[in-house]
Design a protein that fits this description.
The structure holds three protein chains of three kinds. Chain A is an alpha+beta fold. In chain A, 31% of the residues lie in helices and 23% in strands. In chain C, α5 packs across α10, α6 crosses α10 and α10 crosses α12. Classes of the chains: A alpha+beta, B mainly alpha, C mainly alpha.
């Protein structure tokens, strides 16, 4: 009965939609969207959630813009942050946005301790002195306005959901395709394997103008060639993750427009510093200099990407512009190899990568081939993520020698990269080089605390970390991909925002014809 | 005509065997066949220089296909040989001894047979881990019961033949009877089964490679080449097409041979399943 | 042993086998060096999140305890929650099963419609060129690697001729603009019940390529089987007598002879049904068909063990059931078979 009702409602909605000639935009994406809980979602579904929910602030091209909060300020040492909320903002269920709602949302996110909850680690308590003021009291200094802009785990939702039941019941309600956000769109149909249909929310606080789309569809199309065919024919309007060779062909196609920006997503190659032979610094350096960085960018990415000189991606504050990027130098690699006293004949390095990722696979094959030139044999092992990661988190002395992994930040700070991948850990999580250096820990910990109040000093500290990491080479960046979307000519106004990976903000789009 | 078909199939099979044997000396691009990338010539359509085009890493597809014949034949021979090696003694023992031993052994094979073979192979391969040897092992584990079954039913019927009973009455040891009298009687149907299974083994191993559980890149293998070509085939049709043609030819040749043999030996032999 | 006792013992044995299989699969999928808790949480997880998931999924309990829980749930037809999709496995499977059966039935119809006439004609024209042509055709059918053949069909009919869709079960825009209620889960029936002909024809268009791909194997099998049965029947005395009485040839072949060859042919059809169920694995992956095969492959590849166990149970129940029926038919029609 319930299902019938939903189907019936959908028919009504769509009949109304099409009879009034409402406009529709379709974004085709490659993977399934499995869960929809704004507190715990840490995967693809943020594509949906960022159109349905909003955050206090939004990160746009290196700057923070007000969204649900209009202004914010901190005390001197950055341990107390006060946000002023926007007035007359309504949730989709009709409730008004108040400081209580903000407190409720973030507290639920922290309480559920799902994937992205760690971003709020610094928060001791949240106070609501009046309906439009939220005060964050912290355990240690942190850049809360930046954290509040995160694309994961920072969504504000209606406190009315508490009426549904306990946290689990609320999660089930969300995962069934319901929402309680303030965003411009609301979910009308959710089929995790094929499509999510969003409809505009009439009471949206920024209002609606002619040309914006009434209906936005996120269509799941796993085959990249099919996505390409659909976008050139205008059947869908926005897509991404096409085969790079196909993308090159589209550059001269008048029907589509390729929008690109450097993303914050970087592919790293980790060396196992706790296992022979990569525990030997000279051997590690020899490998690092044997890798064909330029070839990888030219032929794996076909130039749709760049090589960052350090761990921190280009375009982010703290970027290591004081270091030259690494480059392949086989002569130097041979000298280092000789100096290391490791006989390449006696070693076989195991390299694991994500089997479903075509670029990781190609990059691995190029690494395989260039290390062969040094006489070092590499065994490639494509794996799925859980297996690859479970192996890396087991005993380092038995784990893989090399590990390829993308990192993309949850919060737009260098600390997100450096802490996750190079800070000492009690139990291995993402420090997959098993790199422990107290000096590095101290430098980055200080940097993140002064980031909100003394950015100059923070930048200096981050660069010092980069210098040490270049010396020790626990890992090397292979490339930073470009965030590329292919947009059909009938849609205007699209600009990628790499801080929100894969997200298309449908509200910004306008029909062009 | 039937003979002509058999002769043609035999020619195809021997051509592939020959190709596999002399692959290192005849392939135009030996390094690329073994995986060496040549990224500057990526995804080129068929031409004189690369008769079947190049793949996503710029490697010559023809060279990799010729090397792939090695992988396929090696897999097929090992799977069939090892399965028979395990299945035949068990089958003979069960059929000849009968009674309790027969019951136990046959119930054991029942467990394997009540399982869709590809599903079982997939499960085993994913447990053992990826790689050609594990894939072969997974197939052997799922296949040997078929041989045991086949040989058992043969052994059952031969056992009651007069000359075997005479041998037994004369006090010839069981071991000698099993190997001198019963085994030879199983050879003909076994040969048919093995020939046809060569084709199935190639297909199933390719299916495992296609799912990422068999041969690992950058090694040359038809199944893997088709799998790697899946992302590209709509716009670069040659990448998976040619390796598939080779595979079809070889599998068909084995199956045609098996089909002709079967008519000679026993037209009622129940065809075991593929996939 | 009589027929009834045979039936009962077979059935009992089958259940026992499936239980054993379930235990093995459960054990195996739990010892694989992977981390279900990490899969549950998704990439970029934290220790606490993984730990929480581990407790939630009861991964911290001993394996036998978990197997006990699993069996208890199984009695209520509860197969647990998929780690990858976070939905009840039984519900995922129920949805996938109808999709697979719809594809399977259409493929099987193609196979019967093509295989029986081909087999009969081949037997009639034994050892002539048609017979050999049908032999090559049938052997090609069983030799085609389905995952490759599917791609070739997609190239031909989608890319070059542009007449059929590439993949999926229905065009999502059609389902969006012409929605219909999923009563049975069989889209062909659902669209007809809703008198939604646009969607009906779209469903047909989507079925053609995967069904043809899947049918290749059973076509070959049925053709060969029908041929050899017919060859045998045609040598019987009553057929020769019929010829002597100048009864029309067509009536002899398709009337008298086929009638006697059909029962064993049906065994092959039933068997081929079981084979195609598993053959659908690869075909569904190629055509992005939301069926059991794609679900199983994804579950195995991502080591989503509740889903792996669930799919294994369902697939082997179907498989055992079909094999069981086949054995019964065979026992009925061929008394020579020893129990």
């Amino acid at each position: 009965m319930r299902r019938f009702l939903v189907a019936f409602l959908l028919v009504v909605v769509l009949t109304v939609a099409f009879s009034q000639k409402q406009t529709m935009v379709v974004y085709a994406y490659g993977s399934e969207m499995i869960t929809l809980d704004p507190s715990t979602e840490f995967s693809n579904s943020i594509i949906v959630l960022n159109n349905v929910y909003e955050t206090l602030t939004r990160y746009v091209d290196g700057k923070l813009e007000p969204l649900l909060a209009t202004e914010w300020s901190a005390n001197e040492d950055g341990t107390v942050w006060t946000f002023k909320l926007r007035k007359n903002v309504k949730f989709h269920d009709g409730t008004e946005l108040t400081s209580e709602a903000v407190k409720f949302s973030i507290e639920r996110t922290i309480r559920l301790a799902g994937g992205p909850a760690y971003i709020w680690d610094s928060v001791k308590e949240i106070e609501t002195p009046d309906p439009y003021t939220v005060v964050f009291k912290l355990k240690y200094p942190a850049n809360i306005p930046l954290i509040a802009s995160a694309g994961y785990g920072a969504f504000i939702f209606s406190p009315k959901v508490a009426q549904i039941g306990d946290d689990e019941a609320i999660a089930n309600w969300f995962n069934a395709g319901n929402d309680a956000g303030t965003g411009p769109y609301t979910i009308t149909k959710y089929d995790p394997k094929t499509q999510v249909v969003l409809r505009k929310f009439d009471g949206y606080w920024q209002g609606w103008t002619e040309g914006k789309f009434d209906i936005a569809v996120i269509q799941i199309v796993p085959d990249p060639s099919l996505r390409m065919q659909m976008v050139t024919s205008g059947k869908i309007h926005v897509t991404r993750e096409l085969i790079y060779d196909d993308l090159k062909k589209l550059e001269n196609n008048p029907d589509v427009h390729i929008a690109q920006k450097p993303s914050f997503q970087v592919l790293y190659l980790f060396f196992n510093t706790k296992k022979f032979p990569l525990s030997n610094p000279d051997f590690r350096a020899a490998v690092a200099y044997a890798i064909p960085y330029k070839e990888i960018i030219d032929h794996v990415l076909l130039g749709y990407g760049l090589q960052p000189s350090g761990i921190i991606p280009r375009g982010m504050f703290g970027y290591a512009d004081h270091l030259p990027p690494l480059s392949q130098d086989l002569e130097k690699a041979r000298q280092l190899l000789a100096k290391s006293n490791v006989d390449p004949k006696n070693v076989k390095l195991v390299l694991t990568y994500l089997q479903s990722n075509e670029s990781e696979k190609k990059a691995s094959e190029l690494i395989w081939s260039s290390l062969k030139k040094l006489g070092i044999e590499v065994e490639l092992r494509p794996m799925n993520w859980e297996q690859q990661w479970a192996w890396a988190r087991s005993d380092p002395s038995k784990a893989q020698d090399m590990f390829i992994m993308y990192w993309w930040p949850t919060v737009m700070t260098p600390y997100d990269f450096l802490f996750s991948m190079f800070h000492t850990e009690e139990e291995v999580l993402f420090n997959l080089s098993y790199y422990y250096n107290e000096e590095v820990d101290k430098l980055m910990d200080e940097a993140v605390q002064v980031e909100g109040t003394n950015p100059k000093r923070a930048e200096q500290l981050y660069k010092m970390v980069e210098t040490i990491l270049r010396r020790d080479l626990p890992a090397v960046p292979l490339y930073q991909i470009s965030d590329i979307y292919v947009v059909h000519k009938s849609v205007k106004g699209f600009t990628p925002n790499p801080a929100y990976p894969n997200v298309v903000f449908f509200y910004e789009l306008e029909s062009g014809s | 005509m039937k003979n002509r078909l058999a002769r043609l199939s035999l020619t195809i099979v021997s051509t592939f065997v020959l190709l596999a044997l002399i692959a290192p000396w005849i392939v135009p691009y030996r390094d690329q066949a073994l995986g060496e990338p040549n990224v500057a010539e990526r995804l080129l359509p068929p031409s004189l220089k690369h008769p079947f085009g190049t793949d996503h890493m710029g490697r010559d597809i023809l060279s990799r296909m010729i090397y792939g014949a090695r992988t396929s034949l090696f897999t097929a021979v090992s799977v069939v040989f090892l399965s028979a090696l395990i299945g035949v003694p068990i089958g003979i023992a069960a059929g000849y001894a009968g009674g309790f031993l027969d019951n136990v052994l046959m119930r054991f094979t029942d467990v394997f047979l009540s399982f869709p073979p590809l599903l079982l192979a997939l499960l085993i391969a994913s447990t053992l881990g990826k790689g050609l040897f594990n894939a072969i092992l997974a197939l052997v584990i799922t296949w040997w019961p078929w041989y045991a079954r086949l040989v058992r039913s043969q052994a059952l019927s031969i056992k009651s033949l007069a000359y075997v009973e005479a041998a037994r009455a004369a006090g010839v040891s069981h071991f000698v009877i099993m190997f001198k009298h019963i085994l030879p009687g199983c050879v003909a149907p076994l040969a048919v089964q093995c020939t046809m299974d060569m084709g199935s083994a190639i297909l199933e191993a390719a299916a495992l490679s296609f799912l990422g559980l068999g041969v690992q890149p950058p090694a040359p293998d038809w199944g893997l080449m088709i799998s790697e070509g899946k992302a590209y085939f709509l716009n670069y049709w040659w990448v998976p097409t040619f390796p598939g043609v080779f595979m079809l030819l070889l599998v068909m040749a084995f199956n045609l041979l098996g089909d002709v043999f079967r008519e000679l030996v026993d037209p009622r032999l129940r065809r075991r399943m593929l996939i | 042993m009589n027929f009834l006792r045979y039936t009962v013992s077979r059935l009992f044995w089958s259940i026992f086998v499936i239980l054993g299989v379930v235990f093995v699969v459960f054990l195996v999928s739990n010892v694989i060096p992977s981390d279900p808790a990490a899969l549950w949480v998704g990439p970029k997880a934290t220790h606490s999140a993984i730990q929480a998931a581990r407790e939630k999924l009861k991964l911290d309990r001993p394996i036998l305890v978990r197997f006990g829980h699993f069996l208890k749930d199984l009695l209520r037809f509860d197969l647990g929650t998929s780690i990858r999709t976070h939905r009840p496995v039984i519900e995922d499977i129920r949805k996938a099963l109808t999709a697979t059966f719809e594809l399977l039935l259409v493929a099987e119809c193609i196979a019967i419609g093509l295989g029986i006439p081909l087999g009969v004609l081949a037997a009639v024209k034994r050892n002539r060129w048609f017979d050999n042509l049908s032999r090559i055709f049938a052997v090609a059918g069983v030799s085609l690697p389905s995952f490759w053949y599917g791609m070739i069909l997609q190239l031909l009919f989608f890319k070059w001729l542009g007449v059929l869709p590439l993949s999926d079960r229905i065009d999502t825009f059609v389902s969006l603009i012409y929605p219909f209620e999923e009563k049975t889960g069989f889209y062909l029936i659902d669209t007809l019940l809703a008198r939604n002909y646009v969607a009906f024809f779209d469903v047909i268009k989507h079925l053609i390529l995967p069904a043809i791909t899947l049918a290749a194997y059973p076509v070959g099998l049925i053709t060969r089987q029908v041929r050899s049965m017919m060859v045998e029947v045609l040598q019987e005395n009553y057929i020769r007598t019929a010829f002597a009485y100048a009864i029309p040839e067509r009536k002899i072949y398709f009337g008298y002879a086929l009638k006697n060859a059909i029962a064993p042919a049906m065994v092959t059809v039933a068997l081929s049904f079981a084979y195609t169920l598993v053959g659908a694995f690869l075909v569904e992956l190629i055509f992005n068909w939301p069926g059991l095969g794609r679900y199983a492959a994804n579950a195995i590849l991502s080591m989503d063990y509740p889903a792996v166990v669930g799919v294994t149970i369902v697939a082997s129940v179907c498989y055992v059931f079909i094999n069981f029926v086949v054995d019964l038919i065979q026992a009925k029609i061929d008394p020579r078979i020893r129990f």
